[in-house]
Amino acid sequence: MKKLTQKELKAQIVELSIAYHRASLAVVRRRKELNDEYARYFRVHGQPEPNHHGIRFDDPRYEGVIAHTNDACDALRKAKRERYNAKRRVDKAVRQLMLLTNQSFAVPASPAVTRRISAPVRRFSASGETMQ
Fold first, then answer.
1. In whole angstroms, what is the distance from residue 12 CA to residue 10 CA?
2. What angle is formed at CA 101 by the lines to CA 98 and CA 104, rounded to 5 degrees?
3. Backbone angles phi, psi at 109, to 5 degrees
4. CB-based contact 53:39 (threshold 8 Å)
5. Fewest beta carbons within 10 Å, which of 39, 68, 97, 131?
6. Which string of DSSP letters, residue by residue, matches 62-109?
7. Which DSSP letter does residue 57 get?
């Protein structure tokens, strides 16, 4: 494998970043298509559980919607895999550039996050009695 120059690595990082962004957009688009398929199926066949949001894969009542959306689900899975691979390629190129330019891999120090402890909430009944 040929060693790239700093300028070539920077150009590669830009190209890979654009590819990663496109892959991220594809994931968003495929997720929307899958959700549209779910909505289309449920409009025609009705919801097995109207008060439940989501698909229960172990419930036989959902077998129809799972079979109907298999292609869209596979397309989303493939898009997510491509996004992951694109992200990995960007990270690898950035690491190579950091090594070439002798950049530190140390995590920059940041101040510790302190949480403010909120005062307890007192609840009262309609007659004014404390409910705690």
1. 5
2. 55
3. -70, 140
4. no
5. 131
6. GHHHHHHTHHHHHHHHHHHHHHHHHHHHHHHHHHHHHHHTT---SPPP
7. T
**Predicted structure pTM score:** 0.76
d(CA 80, CA 66): 19
- In a 13 Å sphere around the CA of 130, the CA atoms on its Cβ side amount to 4
CA distance 105 to 95: 9
Q: Render pLDDT for 16-36 as a digit per residue (tens, 0 to 9).
A: 999 999 999 999 999 999 999
Residue type, 42: F
Q: What is the pLDDT of residues 63-122, one digit of tens each?
A: 999 999 999 999 999 999 999 999 999 999 999 999 999 998 888 888 888 888 877 777
